[in-house]
Amino acid sequence: MSLLTVGTVAFDSIETPFGNAERIIGGSCTYIAKSASYFTPGVNIVAVVGGDFPQTEIEKFQKQNINTEGLQIRPNEKSFFWKGRYHLDMNSRDTLVTDLNVLADFDPIIPESYQDCKFLLLGNLTPDIQRLVLERLRNRPQLIVMDTMNFWMEVALESLLKTLKMVDVLSINDEEARLLAKENSLVKAARKILTMGPRFLIIKKGEHGALLFHEKEVFFAPALPLEEVFDPTGAGDTFAGGFIGYLAKTNDISFENMKRAIVYGSAMASFCVEKFGPEALDSLTEAQIQNRVQAFKSLSSFDIVLK
Amino acid sequence: MSLLTVGTVAFDSIETPFGNAERIIGGSCTYIAKSASYFTPGVNIVAVVGGDFPQTEIEKFQKQNINTEGLQIRPNEKSFFWKGRYHLDMNSRDTLVTDLNVLADFDPIIPESYQDCKFLLLGNLTPDIQRLVLERLRNRPQLIVMDTMNFWMEVALESLLKTLKMVDVLSINDEEARLLAKENSLVKAARKILTMGPRFLIIKKGEHGALLFHEKEVFFAPALPLEEVFDPTGAGDTFAGGFIGYLAKTNDISFENMKRAIVYGSAMASFCVEKFGPEALDSLTEAQIQNRVQAFKSLSSFDIVLK
Predict the structure, then answer these.
(1) Which domains does chain B have, with CATH numbers?
(2) What ipTM score was computed for the predicted complex, to two decimals?
(3) Which DSSP string do the residues of A84-143 spell out, in sequence order?
(4) Cβ contact (<8 Å) for B307 and A290?
(5) What does pTM read for this prediction?
(6) Angle at the Cα of A303 (from A302 to A306), degrees rounded to 5?
(7) Which of A220, A258, A290 to mutate to test the interface with B (most CBs of B within 10 A)?
C-alpha cells in the first residue's frame, strides 16, 4: 500500500563518546523513508533541501525505491542543519546548533501522484505544517501516524493539540508523554493522551524498548541489548519508518498486527544505532532483518501455560 | 524442593512522594521468604532480630509456611533499622539512616533441619557472611543464587569476588553490573561477569524490566506498566524470592524454566510495589498471581512467523 512521509532531509553533525561525524545526511524524513523502504516499494517523501544537498544522496534515495518527486530543492538556499552532542550514557544529548535555513518557510506541497496514499507518517515538524499536509490531502489516508517532540509541546501546544485530534497513532518518547499529559505515571499519561485524538499511542523508551497503548490494551517490545550503541540519532524515526512500512506492506491496522509492526520497527532501530547517521539503513538484506526479528523473538518469548 | 534464604529481617522507615511509613517490617529475607512462600511450602530462613521485633510478625511468617527455626532472637538488642527517601521518579533513593544493631556481629547459624536444602538464596549481606553460609552447608545446594549491592563492590570487592566464584546465579541491578564489570555496555558487562563465577546473571532494571544472561543467550522480561508505584522497597528481593520459589517448586533449573521463573518473579515484584513495605505479600491468592502472569503474557507476546 502506498506510503507518504513528510519531514526533514538535512545535515547533522554528531558528537558521541565514540567519535564525531561532520555534516552527514540526516533528518526525520531520511530515516523514516530509508527504514520503510525495506518493507514497501515507492515510499513517497515531501521535504525541502537547499542547493548544498548532494545529488548523489538523492540518487541513493531513488535507488532505495524512494520517490523524491515531493523533495523540493531550493538552489540558492542552505539545507536544515542540526548539531548535537551525546552524553556518556547515550540516553541524553545537547543540541549545539539548529540552523533552520530552508525549513524556516517550508511549504509542504503534495505532488498529485501522492494523493492516493493510504499510509501517512507525519515526521517531526511544526504542528501547523503537519496539519497543512492533512488539509492538502483530498482523501483521508487509512492510517495517519504522527511524530512530534517536547519543543512543540512547550512553544505550540494549542496547535499541537489541534493536529493531535486528526491522527490515528501518536509516537513520542516517555518524557514527552509525561509532559503532554502532565502525569508522571506512564499508564495514566497514556490513558489521558488516548482521549486527545489518537486511538493508538506509542511510547518510545530508547534502550528500554517501546510501549503500544490502545483502548485497555498494552503491548511492550524490548530494545535489543546491544554491545555498542554507536549513535542513537534517528533511532526513533527509523523505528517509526519500520512500523508504518510493515503496516503498509501487510495492509492490516489491527492491534495484533501493530504489535508485529512495533517489533519490526524496533529491529530496524537496532540496526540504525550501530553506525553513524543513517549509514546502516543503506544496505540491509532481507535475511539480516529476519535474523534481527528472530533475535527479538528469542529475547522475549517464554512459554507459561496457565490453568 | 526445600529452599533456604539468608538475609535481613528488619525495620524500615520509608518516605516516598506518596506518603511515609514508620518502622514497618522489612529486610531482604522478609521479602524473599514471603514471595517464595507462594510457590513452595516450608521456606527456611536464617536471620537475626532484636527483642524489639514483634512476636506477631514472627507468627505471620509461620502462618505463611515460613520456617523460622533459623531466626535468631537477641532479646537485649535492637533489630537492624534502615531509613530511606525516594525521589519523585521513584527510581532513585537516599539512605537517611542505617543502624546495624544486631546485624553488626551476625553469625548465620544453620539449623540441622536446613542442611538438606536444595535451593539457596543468599540475600544481600556482607560477602564474608554469604561465604560462611556456603561453608557451613555440608552438601552444596543444587542451585545457589546470590544477591548483593554496590556498597560491597566498593568496600569489600575482594571478598565479593571470592563469594561470586561459589554461586550459580548472580542477581544485581544495571548500575551494579556496570560497576562490577567496569563496562558501560550491559551486554559487555554481562559477558565479563559470567567469567567471574556465576553461570547465570540476572540484571534488574526496575521499572524497565529484567534481563537473564546465560552463555550466549539472553532473555528479557518487562516490568508491568503500573498506574502507581507506591513503594519500590523490597521489589528486587520479592523478584528474587518469586524467581527461586518457582524454580524450587518446579525443580527445574534449565534456562527455559529460568525464563518462566523470571516472569513469576516480575509478577511478584509488581504486587510488592503497589503497597508500602511487604504488605502486598501477606494475602495474595493463586488466582491473583495467575492473572498477573497472564498480564505479562499479554504484554509481551506477539506472533511473527519467520521463513
Answers:
(1) 3-300 (3.40.1190.20)
(2) 0.92
(3) EEE-TTSS-EEEEEEE-GGGGG------GGGTT-SEEEE-SS-HHHHHHHHHH-SS--SE
(4) yes
(5) 0.95
(6) 130
(7) A220
